[in-house]
TrEMBL record:
Broad class of the protein's primary localization: membrane
Membrane topology label: Multi-pass membrane protein
SUPFAM superfamilies: MFS general substrate transporter
InterPro entries registered for this protein in UniProt: MFS_sugar_transport-like, MFS_Sugar_Transporters, MFS_trans_sf
Transmembrane segments: 43-60, 202-221
Annotated organism of origin: Aspergillus pseudotamarii
Keywords: Membrane, Transmembrane, Transmembrane helix
Cellular compartment(s): Membrane
A GO molecular-function annotation: carbohydrate:proton symporter activity
Listed name of the protein: General substrate transporter
Amino acid sequence: MASSKDSKKAPDFGLKGAACATDMSFFGYDQGLFSVTPSTVTAIYDVGCFFGAPVAFSIGKRLGRKKSTLLATTLTTIGTLLKCVSYSLPQIFVGWVILGFRNEINTSTAPTWQTETSAPKWIWRLVFLEMVMNILDFSMVNWINYGLSFAGGATPWLYPPELNSLQMRNKGAAVATATNWVTNFVIVEITPIRIQNICWKFWIVWTVFNAAFLPAIYFFYPETANRTLEDIDAY
């Protein structure tokens, strides 16, 4: 967490805020592309995200937030170029794996970097900015693909850094996002088959899962509103 003196010198909506918001806009862009992407290709992206977690977990602290973000941005360029020049499905797979790898590093690093370097009063505003950028890119790609703008698919990204100690913050973010991606992979692979077999009844499964989480969140998740990261660490 930046000191009050440092936070006055560096505007919270400056380069750090722009960098983190751009990271989330990449994520929204990828989400939008999935609307016209076969499920297997989408699942391959999730595999790349999952395998990016050990990198974020193991070298994130050694590289630091800034260098990790630069590494992920470089991988964005490589993965995008591979997709653009590909002439076969295997090349597209490789491009998506690299982009998934990049996305995991970004989404586990950028939120942590944002919360650690921003004044407490600005954190929620900056998180909101990241979500706006995510949804804008998601909507833009859907508008290009379908001629409409719809943001219902851009799920708000929940930030695990608030719930972890100072020493485990980056590792906790990496594990949390890795869990997200491996479950995404399973869902993408099984959903077409299940819908074909049991039709609309398959959505009841997710309804039950979501309902089961409500008491768990209410009784076991600590409230982080109006608390600094140091407060959460002490708590």
